DNA sequence: AAATAAGGTTCCAAATAATGGAACAATCGG
DNA sequence: CCGATTGTTCCATTATTTGGAACCTTATTT
């Protein structure tokens, strides 16, 4: 009942749209056959507001019941979905298990680890590492201060590219045509009075390119500011960034300016580390 | 080169074996068609020691090159795998993204959250929440002390059932025939001098049933002890547990005994919370 | 520099798996 | 107890996957 509108829309938008891989000149060819169909279901369940019943999924996916049934059985057998006693589907622990492996071995994360910590020590604020995927930033790691933390919370999270420090910093590395291509897919949602529009974002990109750092001036959330600097592989096969984030009352713009230089330096070190293939032991 | 032996074996063992769902009397029917084949590949990459090249995967999977090629393309298109500039495959960020959603919404975790924190406050030590999947314990959450933490590290991690407090506690809830069924799949690896064998484990299960708590007396790692208590849904459709873990020098057996009662109580509250469907707002 | 090998990719007829309509259970509400 | 709703199974049809072979492309050898 209250689950009846997990929005076919937002599923597609937040879930699948992210799929758009960055270096994909020839878009529109996600012919992944059987797997593609299953992933749509997985997305739907993952991005729903709560567990979904068979009927809900049937309605939203438009698949005939017989087909859907077998698909769900397969997903459950593989542990990608779970079916509880009340007949409701939610995502399976298998995902967590696979992601945990994936995360633990991620090369960028391993290289960046110690630098993030250094930045945290220097600033005392929360440090993030993120990567661009499609028109979103996905956070790969986070080092918080002394607080008792909800660490995982941000990791793996996907945020819009246009109102995060990491997103803007990363964008600034891309050639204009790629930026344009990316931004056509984006709908600019106004999170705060300071959130960018397409035009103001493009204007700021120029500035970011000159400075080598991007600021988030409460553009995503009121009361939250950050400084970020870009990271990339040599051929831009991936781009991302690191940022220092905190409450506006503590992070005045003056203070953020002070941190610009160390952030830029750290980002450069990470980029270099990636390029020369520094393993987990730099 | 150095990747040539990512062990077809350990892939199957650590990866797929975990799939064995608990309440599956009629095993041996993992007919998941296309999806199953792709998951084997995903597992292989996820459980390898590093990125794999096409040829490595081809050799290990035994698939003809043409077939394998298309399968990998599909996995990459869906973001489940990533192909770097050197032609090496590793797991994709899509997994992290999905798992992050999954984790954030997990009902058990949401119910348990505040209780874990309470236990952390009481003991000052690290508290874990885990669930049984096949013959492994998968950690769902972790609350650490004041240290600057590597939070994610343990979450999603799969550990053997027979040498973890949570695993043993959870086992103790199951009827003997199900325990037997589970343990036939298990090879008892000797991690420390105190690690259980099949026989000693069964012996301890009786004791755990009487006490309602399980101890890990340096059975998985020398110098690490823990107390754990079991959690379950009404019909045992899932079983798991919570534990308090720490260094042996601080966690004497006397101290662990003192915590037995609070842990038992907390575990009971969580079980009740689950059963009456307490949402995230208890 | 040419020849050879190894690593990847594309093609296509044959084999296999997915599809979806319909018939069949099970559960629910009155 | 009936009718409605929800979930499951069956099976001929349709679509996808398969795998061998031919084909590129890059390293390696002579």
What does this structure look like?
- Two copies of one chain form a homodimer.
- With 282 residues, chain A is of the alpha+beta class.
- The first copy, chain A, has two domains: 8-95, Arc Repressor Mutant, subunit A, CATH 1.10.10; 106-275, GAF domain (Beta-Lactamase).
- Helices cover 45% and strands 18% of the residues of chain A.
- Chain A is built from ten helices and nine strands.
- Chain A has helices at 8-16, 33-47, 54-61, 65-77, 93-105, 107-123, 165-171, 176-184, 198-211, 253-275; strands at residues 52-53, 81-83, 88-91, 126-133, 136-143, 158-160, 214-217, 224-232, 239-247.
- In chain A, strands 6-5-4-9-8-7 form a six-stranded antiparallel β-sheet, with helices on both faces.
- In chain A, helix 1 (8-16) packs across helix 2 and helix 6 runs antiparallel to helix 10.
- The longest helix of chain A is centred in the C-terminal third of the chain and has 23 residues, at 253-275.
- The radius of gyration of chain A is 20 Å and the shape is elongated.
- The termini of chain A are far apart.
- The model of chain A is unreliable at 1-29 (pLDDT under 50).
- Chain A binds a DNA duplex (30 and 30 nucleotides) through helix 2, helix 3 and helix 4.
